[in-house]
Model the fold of this input.
Amino acid sequence: MSFCYAIFGATGTIGSLLMQEILSCSSNTTVHAFCRSREKLLKCINNEDHKARVKIFEGSLDDIELLQNCIKEANVIVLAIAPKGNIPNNHLVENTAKNMIKAVQSLKNIKANRIVLVSSAGTEHRFMHANSSALFLAILDRALFHVYRDLEAAEKVLRANESLIPSTYVKPSALSHNFGYNPYRKPSAKNVFKLDFQNANFPCSYFDFVHGVMEVADEKSDLYENKSVATNSIGKVSFPIEAPVQLFVGLVVFYLPFLCSWIY
Ligand SMILES: NC(=O)c1ccc[n+]([C@@H]2O[C@H](COP(=O)([O-])OP(=O)(O)OC[C@H]3O[C@@H](n4cnc5c(N)ncnc54)[C@H](OP(=O)(O)O)[C@@H]3O)[C@@H](O)[C@H]2O)c1
Done:
């Protein structure tokens, strides 16, 4: 029997890789991809067989009817939406969570047994205490202040509605495109990641992360229900070289918010 993933943010870095891996790992999977641009979404799919298994829902996250159509036949809902950066007063993910709950409430029968929110360990510092100093956490919290507050607010909305539909909050530390220093390490879905209820190691690779999200989404039991879980790479992953610049830009906007529209 086929398994359908509704992915919101399917054109994003995480959403598009997740979609590709879901379609590559099994021929029995389908994706309902929610996006703002069909054209951009189609560029994220590189194979005709995969295209045939993707149904595209193009439009606004405020269109509850479109959200309903996207989720009503899905087995799991993944929210991988993100704003462009540390934008003050941004409520994008929170509003998406609110609209998703409205959509779920107004559907009589919903197949989906879970919402998976792609969040960040920065919203729950206990995940990072073992690996990070207080100074680093303070810098991180300012550099991504508005992103984290939005994710926290979204989690609050979903937690308040866990009796309607359970949720899982997947929280990696920084993500890296690089697989590390071992040239023999090829991406493979086996034994590359570990889901962890205690620690988020720095960094996790994008590839490993999306496989962790898939494991959470596919889990039949209630193991991850209504819980926060970190994803860790098992192998060596190299430092995301873009991170210092992103942190610096986030800090500038935190202290000088009037520069936001010029920067992003
Ligand atoms: N990247 C990391 O290192 C990292 C680490 C930890 C946690 N996370 C978390 O992972 C989540 C996803 O991150 P990402 O790196 O995949 O983000 P991303 O590449 O920036 O993708 C963001 C997605 O959200 C969509 N989006 C943005 N604004 C929208 C709007 N107004 N309406 C509809 N869709 C909208 C984008 O659509 P368009 O393509 O149309 O713009 C895109 O599909 C975020 O919550 C982030 O905080 C990321």
Notes: The first helix runs from residue 13 to 25. The chain has a mean pLDDT of 93. The radius of gyration is 18 Å. DSSP finds ten helices and ten strands in the chain.
